[in-house]
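ugh ok fine here u go
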Amino acid sequence: MFSDWPSELVPQQGWGDEAAISAFKDAIPWTVGRDFVAGTAKHLAGSLGLTKPGPPVKSKIVHDKQLQVLMPALGHGLSFPLSEIDILRDCVSVYCEWLSALLPNPKSSVPGPILNDPNHYARIIINHFYYLFVPRGAQGPDVINRQAVLCHRVLRTLQNIAQNSPCLSEDTWQTLLLFLLHINSALLSPPTVKVPDESKSAPSSTLSLNFTGDVPEDAGEQLCERVLSVLFETWLLACARCFPPPPLWNALRESCQRWRHRAGLIDQWNRINFALTRKLIGFMYGPSFPEIVISAEDDLNIIPASMSRDCIAQVWYRILHIIGNPVDLSRHTVISKTPAFLKYAISSALVIEPSQHPCLQMLPSIFLSAMKGVSGLVDAFLGVPNTSLDNLTQKGRQISPASSLSLSTEYHGDDTARLLASGRAKCNSILHLFGPWLFEAALINCNLQASPGPQHKTDSGSAGSGSRRPVSVFGGESNRKSSDSSAPGDSHTDRLASLSPQHFQSGRAEALGALCRIFCSKKTGEEILLVYLARFYIALHQGLRQSDPAVSSSHPDMNQNSSNRYQGIRTGICSETAASILVNGVDLFRLDLHGVVGLVPSVLGVLECVLPEGELNAPSHFPVTLLRRAATHVLLSILPLPLHFQGLQVKEVGNNSGERLALSQLRPQLVNLLTNALQVEVDPANTQMLLGGLLFCVQDAALCEVMDSVSQHNFSADRDHNIMSSGASDTVSSHGDYNSLLDESCETLPDGSLSQVGASSFTGTATSHAAMLSSTDGETRPVVEDSDSAHALFVRAIYLVCHRLISSWKSDVNVSLAGLELLSGLARLSIAEQDGLECKRAVKWLCDYIAYQCSRPPRAHSKDLHSTIVAAFHCASVWLVAHPYLLQDKECLATVLEVVELGISGSKSQVKSSDAPRLKHEKELKPASMRVRDAAEALLSCVLSQVGTFPSVCGAESLSSLLDEVTLLRHCNTWGGSEQLTRDTAAQHFRYFVAQNSIMLALLEQPLGNHQDPQPTVTALIRGPFGRVAWTMQLRHLPRHKSSAKLYTVNPGRPLPMNDVGIKHNVKPKYFPDSVERIPLCKSDKSIPTLESVIMNDEKSALEHEKLLQILDHQIAFEDSVQRQVERETSEYPDVETECVAPPLCFEFQTARLLLSHFGFLSLDALQESVESAVPSLVAVDSSVAGFARDLDILDATNNRTIDTAHIFYVQAGQSVPQDILSNVISSSSVHPHFMEFLNGLGWTVNVHQHPGWTGHISTAFMVTSSSYDGPVDANHGGSGFNGRSHVLYWSDAVSEIAFVVPAPTHGQASPGSQQSSTNNINMVGFVLESCDRAGGRGGTSGSGSERSDSLPPYDGDVEAGSSISSHTSQMSYGHGSENKNRKFGRQTSAMSCNDHKVYLVWLESFDDCYTFPANELLSETVTGLESSSWKDKEAIVHIIFIHALTNGLFRIKLQGQNAKLNMAGPLVDGQVVSRRVLGTLVRQTALNMCRRRRLESDSYQPPHVRRKLRIQEMVQKYRYEMNEPEFYTHLFTSPLC
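structure:
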């Protein structure tokens, strides 16, 4: 920069007013001169008032000639030896007082001539001060300390004058700066002279020699930091007030390059650079840009406030280059090429060459400090938060704040804080500034000659090999000379055995880390110069392939293993450079870096060194856990590459042999690396990340094989379909066959969607794995082997995860949940070669895991432990539903039922097969917890009702029957359809009973219209904890398949009469024997008068008696005549005219009584209260009470599955305004081509007005209504068609359902969500009450229509089109009615507390937009109606899955908001890269697992079946008939309408 300018730094011997002082010394002898100087100095010092009390005496020096005599004497006194310390002190005191003439308030003792011309005399004084700082040779520590005290006083004085003097001239400024340069040169230019501690051995991998001699032999080491700080601070003041000319800048640059062997210079250089950079960034990027943190208060004010911005920029750039090339610090021969080192070598008998001086052994630590400083400046320009000067003093700062934050798993509230500033400089700009230094430092001691082949053999002892020459990518002539001088064969290096280029690996690692952070800061769409990329890849390749010789020397077997591609593989040794690359380069494969795939083989070698080893030998300043986490991140980012670029042949960096490697060949190696890492990993966060990668591998392989099998069937181009649509392997179709779902999806996908996968993603769909061949070695072999097929991975994953779950993961709740989530994902996979035995083992291991967790001692039982048990029961349900054939195995069925029994009762009936089973009444009901019992009941219900039957004929949208009272009554024979049928009216025709206090029976005794065979028929609507079912039961004497066979002749003919029917005896029975008349009467018999005697005594009574007898006679005669007539008409015999006819059919049956009787509910014990329960086993419910129909609707609206909602947003580059984000999905032209494909992969499309399940909002869920939106979705929409007003995306299985809503602008018509968002405080109780009242006003909840029930024929009744199907429910648990406000059943806020959190799926065009995404502003668009009334008043919990499409066809994932205890819901991992095939499936599974973990964490959550059970119990309390047993029996014989 200043090479054309001469330096103003003259030789030291000609500076400091040497002529005047020499004339004084030569004029008089030494002793006389000493006495003269001592007396003069003492006299002048005494007049200052410093040595004796009293005010200072006014100076008597009034002429310049007096000063011309005195000042040479004082200057001569400053050159006295340190033994004359008193004279030195007096001279310093006088001069310091006289310099106050430059201050606004000079001291009174200052001579008049100096006051008249202060700048002239100040320059003379400053020149004389030089002699004080000149080293005196070897001195004792006390003497050197005395000199240091005087030097510090002078420096304070000069610094005070520079800061506060208002009259410093330009010449004085230059004199002051030259003085500071000269004293620094005098003190710092000579090599450090210290006695090394012989007890300490040479350094190992990172050289940091500290000389610990007790006696420092020069003052330079003691004054180094002080004189440098005064120099730089004064220089900055001069730049603000009197900018130094170029010769001075050149002098400063040359001087600093002579002091580079001093560690203090680099420390001060870093300090000034950070202070200047802080100011520079402040006005370049504004106040919002992250500031450099400077903790020292003095350093905050080091930059003068008056310095202009242009001046700051000039000074910053000049100071940055003031020490030259920092990489020269790694070349001791360059650093020692100074006159001071040459002089020492000439005068020393021990050191022959300047480069042999022992102080140069500090260069590795100095070089590291310089690289830390450059790295810190890089972080500052990248906007890394908390970039601090204090970080430079920490050992091993290769872990930057950005890297440590990105690798941290601890979230403290605001996890949305960005790692890098949005307005940061471009990569090219930073590389223009620091690239030459960083690239050169990263390639220290590297052989850049091309490797002859893929087998790289790096000689750890390269310092002793003469065949390789270290070069630099920025190799100028001077650099090449210095490199040659430090070549391995150089004689200097041989004699300086304790220092070699390998000792600079720490600084090299710091440079590599800074380069990684620069390139990882690349923004979306940002272009980096190809020359920088090439240099970067070369540097990474060299940093990954070399290992520390100091480390490897302790492991000699490592160098002898030629079979490994890289040193350190499978030995558990990681070099410092490789560790720095891993930690700082976790995003290398997540960005759109051109050609980065060529680094995969190099990175894979290091991963094999780090991940599979349980005992990793890593650099001490790299935590092993953090290093393994970084390696795991890198592994997850390269896992999809082999299958994504199946036919891509890559050329490894540094290999010019022409041999290429197929990426698909690396897949078995990657899979083995992943599984081996899982076996040895002990950190919970790392384990969860590896589990996510394992599930991705299995699913990606399975879907890839499906695509290959589809392509092998020679599908035409117009029938190529995309696997990522709603027909994903774990998606449940609403059209029937669950197992053949994938085939159905391939027939319904849009044309040509598969062909959208470009050549960069797939080489062609018609090529199978077996056909993908590699010819790199002249042989033909398949790329994908059996060991990494989907089936093989499926089996390995099951074995590994189940074994680790039981052995080592059972005590960690997060890892256990992650493992169970992985097993659930495996259960849903559709693999052609799936082995039933493996699935059976998986279920067996799950049951063993549950049994072990339940059997742990009581002190180990906690909420987290029970959460794992609940999750294991859920996982077992998923396996059994997906593989119903497992229950056909008796052993598997017994195992499942045993663990269900264990969960419900707390113990098994038969612990061992040899034990006698204990009956139910013999066991104590003591489950591990109520949560565990509820989960076991859910599994039992799933086994009994869902396994083998899901999805039902109604589709996956419904687990329950779609029939209700209104629908059934409309199809009865007795219903004429003449009046409006409401739920209240329909309920009057049913008998309602509650059995076991948990099952509500609605019994209809009227036969349905489609049953023409009159049999005792009852139709039962059974509402239980697990849903609603409808059954029609008939009492038959024969099975149904035999009832059509007639056992008699259709026309038997007329029988012949038989007159001989025997003798008919008309015998009148007697009630008493004949002898009764012969028994004489006794007095007691005569005590009661006869009727005749009473009547005869009274005339009136006799008349009345006569009338009564006449009436009786008349009635007897009439009855006899009628009886004879009836006998004639009905008598068969012997009347020959009477036809033989069948008896009339009976149409009146009390079928409800028959049903209850047959099931044993009508016993006396069942109708009485028991000890266990205050409610009898059977209770009649009064349906006529007001509010019964409304509560019945609420019961039907309590879902028997968990429901969740995810909202999807599309963010174009640079958007942060909610309205702009919502407008993106209106048209398909404004979204990414793969966005719609991703939406179809989440689920299938349903019409919210015809969908009986969850729709994303309570106002449209669980009902079928008529609407103008009944048409299909607009084909040109960009996602707005799924906004919830007409259609949504829906997915469900046997235990859960989820709706995916894409919010869009309303355009004048509010969406269901926005209707509620206008209210600040949503009263959910009132909302549901109002909706129920509206439903009753419309005529109640009628049936779904004939299209909803295949078993019901059409009918002529007026079926209201706007009827609702109450088969599903919201998850709300709220009370209704004023009489019920104070009654609570269970935890009433259970559902609301779990629905206040939100799940966002955000598609990003620019990845940096994830830091500015307005999550809270979009909450109003995500209202589902399930929120609690105060959810807006508290901080919303939002889980966000960001999806960013890379240009290579892969997708980068970022997770945000997982700051709960049960965090890191999988299978997706923050930072993971996934393929297009599995994107929709993995995102859906992650969203569901996020919601499940939230429910597991909630203390108030209740499962759906528990809420339904509590709802039934509440209805029992409100509507129960209070009857005793006789009254109950009487109630059975009355009609429900009576």
